[in-house]
Amino acid sequence: MRLTQLSHDYFSQVISLGNLVHGENYLDEEKLEKIYQMGLRNGLNSSFIAVDEQDRVVGLRLTYCPSQWEIDKWCTPTEWPVAVEAMAYFKCIAIHPDAQGQGIGPKLLAASITVLKQQGAKAGVAHLWRQSPGNGAVKYFTKSGGKLVKLHDDRWLENCINDGYECPICGNECHCQAAEMVIEF
Question: Which of these, 19, 21, 63, 172, is most buried using a 10 Å CB contact count?
Answer without folding.
Answer: 63
